[in-house]
């Protein structure tokens, strides 16, 4: 992320975030309710448009890329789509829809400590 900004009208809610996360690194956003954690993640996933700045995933510029082309998934805190599935099953569903085989899904779930 390079100087990522989000405004709703005149109210700026994300103030120029600069962040680089390397491959295989984990990053956690922590803060009180309403501080912008979910908004930032929704912008990364493409579910929310940025007001300014740029985002790249790997070598791909994704700031204006369609969400379905980004290769990013989100699991929401409350049931968003699949209340009958576990977190692992929800993650696996997204991976299956993107052509991953069961052994690769199991490997990715284990990497995320969901096995």
Q: Tell me the strand percentage band.
A: 15-25%
The description of the largest β-sheet is: 3 strands, antiparallel
Radius of gyration equals 15 Å
- Domain tally: 2
**CATH fold node name of the largest domain:** Rossmann fold
User: What class would the helix/strand composition place it in?
Assistant: alpha+beta
- The shape, in one word, is globular
Count of individual beta strands: 5
Number of helices: 3
H and E string: EEHEEEHH
Oligomer: single chain
Termini, distance in Å? 31 Å
Helix content: 25-40%
CATH architecture of the largest domain: 3-Layer(aba) Sandwich
The CATH superfamily name of the largest domain is P-loop containing nucleotide triphosphate hydrolases
Q: What is the level 1 CATH name of the largest domain? A: Alpha Beta
Describe how the helices and strands are arranged.
Blueprint: E1 2-8, E2 11-17, H1 37-45, E3 52-54, E4 56-57, E5 60-61, H2 87-97, H3 102-111
Antiparallel strand pairs: 1-2, 1-3, 4-5
Pfam families: ABC_tran
GO molecular function, one term: ATP binding
InterPro entries: ABC_transporter-like_ATP-bd (IPR003439), ABC_transpr_MalK/UgpC-like (IPR047641), P-loop_NTPase (IPR027417)
Keywords:
115 residues, alpha+beta, Rossmann fold, 2 domains, two-stranded antiparallel sheet, 3 helices, 5 strands, 26% helix, P-loop_NTPase, ATP binding, ABC transporter, ABC_transporter-like_ATP-bd
